[in-house]
Amino acid sequence: MLVALLPGDGIGPEVIEQTVRVLHAVCGDALTFEEAPVGGAAYKASGHPLPDATLDLAKRADAILFGAVGDPDCDALERRLRPEQAILGLRKELGLFANLRPAKLFAELADASALRPEVAAAIDMVIVRELNGDVYFGEKGMRTTPAGRRQGYDVMSYDEDEVARIARVGFETARARKGRLCSVDKANVLETSQLWRDVVIEISADYPDIALSHMYVDNCAMQLVRNPGQFDVIVTGNLFGDILSDQASMCAGSIGMLPSASLDSAGKGLYEPIHGSAPDIAGQGKANPLATILSAAMMLRYSLNRPADADRIEAAVAKALAGGARSPDLGGALTTAQMGEAVLAAL
Ligand code: NAD
Ligand code: IPM
Ligand code: MN
């Protein structure tokens, strides 16, 4: 099976390196890796953040393991050339509309959570984030108002089919877990959200066994801190899901802990940590690689049909944490490579 490795920028290559060591140890020769540049690194090498050869590799591969993109040197480029366009382009070109972001507190990390340990203890949720639509992909631009003032705009929209297909992923995810789905929107203000809510309710007719609730996104942000244990599965749009998952990560200990799977309708997937390229710590060996290692476990489970290997990696991460492995974001002093070695030792 061919895995496309797209390390990207900043800490991306650092966390990918440790993840590949773990995959070698667990899967041996069963996986073949082929690497390609993406993001700012690709722009600097060839003038485009998502070169054709990189996109071709992503299409050819059985699964994609992605680090992170983003480079402060590129922030002044026109938008289509910025590193972030690479991940947005991959998600869109490959039809990866369903982004699963599990947030759970490893018991050993109760002290790393930003919440009191007794509040954090119950965190075990999956945020199902729509990834191909919303304000991310609507018409956008800069224009001048009649009064001669600069105006930026980004159109938010969803059509009913886009909502229906992600709603089904939310219901199915809840069915495989504790049977509770919370749909998060802003239907009190946004037409896009009113359609979202209406369609989620329509689809719920096919899932009478699932307990469906609705919550406004502002309340959800508050509830994630007040009582995160109430959530089983959250289904939400692209922008709200982006923001809420960063927040959930810190409730569960660190942004360096949260993996993700971005799936199409046929099982093809891109796997990446939810964090970015972290320019503030890049090159210093301070990045926590566990989010990427846990993303590789999701890859083995969802795209490569190796659930036992996925279980082994997740168990090794838990064991490493139980043994005291802590990078700086978790309050410790281990380097990125030492965190990788702790997982290898646990294996
Ligand atoms: P970020 O997630 O890169 O970093 C936010 C904070 O969390 C920083 O203080 C960073 O040091 C810390 N952090 C992140 N990952 C960590 C890890 N594994 N271990 C320890 N600490 C970690 O977000 P940002 O600073 O807002 O964005 C930086 C760049 O990354 C931007 O260019 C942004 O567009 C990009 N970005 C890319 C992705 C992606 O590739 N999918 C995701 C988010 C942000
Ligand atoms: C993420 C990131 C991306 C997003 C950016 C880099 C385009 O924040 O993967 O969470 O907003 O989706
Ligand atoms: Mn994000």
UniProtKB/TrEMBL annotation:
Q: What is the uppermost EC class here?
A: oxidoreductase
Its UniProt entry gives the catalysed reaction(s) as:
(2R,3S)-3-isopropylmalate + NAD(+) = 4-methyl-2-oxopentanoate + CO2 + NADH
Question: Its quaternary structure?
Answer: Homodimer.
Transport among the record's keywords? Answer: no
Q: What EC number(s) would the UniProt record show?
A: 1.1.1.85
Q: Which domain of life is it from?
A: Bacteria
- GO terms for cellular component: cytosol
**Major place of localization?**
cytoplasm
List the residue(s) that the UniProt entry marks as the site Important for catalysis: 136, 186
Q: Does the keyword Transmembrane apply?
A: no
Cofactors required = Mn(2+); Mg(2+)
- Lineage of the source organism? Bacteria, Pseudomonadati, Pseudomonadota, Alphaproteobacteria, Sphingomonadales
Keyword set, alphabetical order: Amino-acid biosynthesis, Branched-chain amino acid biosynthesis, Cytoplasm, Leucine biosynthesis, Magnesium, Manganese, Metal-binding, NAD, Oxidoreductase
The similarity comment for this entry is:
Belongs to the isocitrate and isopropylmalate dehydrogenases family. LeuB type 1 subfamily.
User: What Pfam families does this protein's entry cite?
Assistant: Iso_dh
Q: Which GO terms describe its biological process?
A: L-leucine biosynthetic process
Name of the protein in question: 3-isopropylmalate dehydrogenase
Q: Which InterPro entries match?
A: IsoCit/isopropylmalate_DH_CS, IsoPropMal-DH-like_dom, Isopropylmalate_DH
Q: Which residues form the Isopropylmalate dehydrogenase-like domain?
A: 2-343
PANTHER family per record: 3-ISOPROPYLMALATE DEHYDROGENASE
**Pathway(s) per entry:** Amino-acid biosynthesis; L-leucine biosynthesis; L-leucine from 3-methyl-2-oxobutanoate: step 3/4
> Residues that bind NAD(+), according to the entry?
276-288
Q: Any idea which positions bind substrate?
A: 91, 101, 129, 218
The note on cofactor binding and number reads:
Binds 1 Mg(2+) or Mn(2+) ion per subunit.
